[in-house]
Amino acid sequence: MATLILPGWQGSGPEHWQAHWLDLMDRTVLVRQRDWDHPDLEDWLAAAIEAIGHHPNPILVGHSLGAILIAHLASRHPDLPIAGALLVAPADVDNQAANVPALASFAPIPTGPLGFPAIVVGSRNDPWMPPARARILARMWEAEYVDAGRAGHINAATDLGAWPEGQRLLAHLTSGVRSRSLALGGGFCGNARKTIFPSATAAN
After folding, report:
1. All structural domains of the chain with their residue ranges
2. How far apart (Å, rounded) are the C-alpha atoms in residues 199 and 121?
3. 90 φ/ψ angles, rounded to the nearest 5 degrees
């Protein structure tokens, strides 16, 4: 089963835990967007959908705007083969777009059930999403909510390194998805090779 890494606005730099995961974990795939600095929802959806087509039934790991992208994928394309998702520090684009116009195309945030197992990780002092709102979104998405404490935006600025707690949450989610698949008699397709999608020599 592949894990698709979905960074947020401006991408995830080399010190971000998502970059560490790409280096440390097998079967991880970075979904590279055409323009990290000027995100367009339709463009980002198309890149994610194409990646899922090449790696069916993945676990999606989205940070910030990448987490909101997952919500849009679930809302607009409910038939996509997605096994589960880890949504970390989702960005409150509904209330931030006025200050950061680059995020406007991602508003409003979909609020319907995701339709697959998911964990939302929120921080008590996230400048991009009040924790109470993150909990509400998790409930509407029918996802488990995990309180990461005072972890800021859960990004490189928080100095989390490879974020071992996040790795444990991913393992927990993956284990639950596999158990659920076995109970339903399903199976998964994956790619055992680490890659970037689409192919590129470098990523933000």
Report:
1. 3-197
2. 29
3. -60, 140
CB 86, CB 59: distance < 8 Å: yes
Q: Which CATH number fits domain 3-197: 3.10.20.30, 3.40.50.1820, 3.30.9.10, 3.40.50.300?
A: 3.40.50.1820
Alpha-carbon dihedral sign for residues 110, 112, 117, 122: positive
| C-alpha atoms less than 13 angstroms from C-alpha of 18 in its C-beta half-sphere | 30
Identify the burial level of 123 via C-beta atoms within 10 angstroms of its C-beta, where 0-12 means exposed, 13-18 middle and 19 or more buried: buried
**Residue 168 pLDDT > 90:** yes
Phi, psi of 124 (to 5 degrees): -70, -20
Note the pLDDT tens digit of each residue in 30-75: 999 999 999 999 999 999 999 999 999 999 999 999 999 999 999 9
Q: Which of 168, 112, 108 is nearest to 141 (CA)?
A: 112
Provide the whole-model pTM: 0.89
What token pair was written down for 30?
């970075």
Question: What is the rounded (10 degree) CA torsion for 34, 88, 74, 85?
Answer: 110
Other Cβ atoms closer than 10 A to 127: 12
pLDDT in tens, 106-149: 999 999 999 999 999 999 999 999 999 999 999 999 999 999 99
